[in-house]
Amino acid sequence: MKQWLKKIEGLLGGGEGGARRSQTFRWLIILGLIGVGIMLFNSFVNVKKIDPENIGREPPDPVASMASLPTDPADQNPFQAIEFAFEDKIKGVLENIVGVGTVDVMVTVDSTEELVVQRNVKDSQQLTEETDANGGKRHMTQYTRDGEIITYEISGDQTPIVTKKLKPQIRGVLVVAKGAENKVVKDLITDAVEKGLNVAAYRISVVPRKQD
Predict the structure, then answer these.
(1) Beta strands in 94-136 (DSSP E)
(2) What is the value of pTM for the model shown?
């Protein structure tokens, strides 16, 4: 390499201005080596850019993160979807009652909708009589029930016959409403919830809403 450079310098250094061309050639070699060094450095070092606007920011607030959770009933579990549906429905009804202002409703359920399907049930009974060594007799009765779900065919698929749909069981209802401080209005709210959701009065709590 060294000899090769000397040969090039010898070719450039001849004639008028040869020393100046050799000096320029050396500078070009030095600049080229610096450039190669910078490229090698960048290939081995990963520099992460930092957004100056994010410097000093605090981690996200857990409460805010919870608030950003999906509220679409379709994204919730079956129990939450039923509770949201009941709450929206009864809230609209209650706010139309005379004397009732803004209403918040919370409904909790113990079960989802239950389907009762038709079964072909067979009951059997077996009686057994035994006599022990002392002449005593003992009677035993065994009951057995077997059944299978009755289905019908739709487009090649077997579908069970549904004989009954049981609505979700409501555990309790909480209503916070403007105007509930009036006993007449409170009774109207309780009666509407009782009949609208088919839930016993002792499972309903109605409290006045704080004034804005």
Answers:
(1) 103-109, 114-117, 119-131
(2) 0.50
